Structure formats: C-alpha cells, structure tokens
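step: validate -> pass
step: tokenize input -> pass
step: predict -> running
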Amino acid sequence: MAIIVLRHAKARASAGSGGDLDRVLDPVGIQQAKTVAQVIGHLAIDTSRLRVLVSPALRCQNTVAPLVSRFSVEPLVDKRLLEYASDSELLELVSLARSASGTWVICGHGPSLLRLVRLLVREQGAMVADRELSLGVAAFLYLEFWAVSGRPLSLLARYAPPRYQGTVLIG
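step: predict -> pass
step: emit ->
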C-alpha cells in the first residue's frame, strides 16, 4: 500500500469576494499541478487502484485536477483535510489510509498534513524530524508500508518543486 501526501500548489493570495476556501491556483500553481500529475504518474504505483482524497478548498481540488483527469479517477472531497482538522479527524484518516489497498493521494494543507504524516510515520515506530515531514507548496511525501516476518517496514521519500527528485528520508 502506498500513500502520497500532497500539499496544494501555489494559490492566489485572495479569492476576491470569496473566502479562503475559494482561492484558486495562480499560473505557477497551475503548472505545478500539471507537473505533480506527471511525476506521480511516473512513480511505480498501482494506478488501477488509485484513490484521491482532497480538501474542500478549491486550491486543493485544482491541484489534483490534472491527476484525476490523467487517471480517470473521481476525487473524494473530505472536510477532515481542512487546514485545522482535529486530532480525532486525522486519526480517522490514518485508520482509513492504513486499512486501504492500492495507492491513495491525499491533498490538503500544510498544518494538517504535517500532523497526518507524523501520525502515519510514528505509527510505524519511525522517528523523523518535523522539518523533514513538513511540505512546501506543491510538494509531496511518498509513503509505503509493508511487513517482513511481522516487522513493520516503511519507505518515506520527499518530492519538491521544481525538480521533483525524490529524497529518501526512511527506507
């Protein structure tokens, strides 16, 4: 099972007359979203069982739009991915992600994603500094979990713009 935790691409500073959830991507963010879809498409993942879980914020939905289009996947909008989700909501997402099969792309906001990844990684018994887990705009973490002889193993790699070359943090 693989989980890709993606922070939304670069968004406009304001939504005009709308609120924060109505902010859309700026031109740089639109290109980042296209690049992210290509990079994720080149990872060795099972795209036939790809699921996309996304925050209700438009900037997050815009970020996954090229990905869901490329793989003909219907994104699942989930309010538990909003910027300041509660710990109990994040624990629900951890449970959902850990029980799922295939590959999950989870797109949301920096503060809640950091806490989500921290929960996923620590559940495996790994210790990684928060500075390694926090994500800049349009960056993502690729996590794989498996067990060998009952011992949990994991892979954690970070991909960040502009080159999106993976940096292995645990593996």
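step: describe -> The radius of gyration is 15 Å.
step: cleanup -> pass
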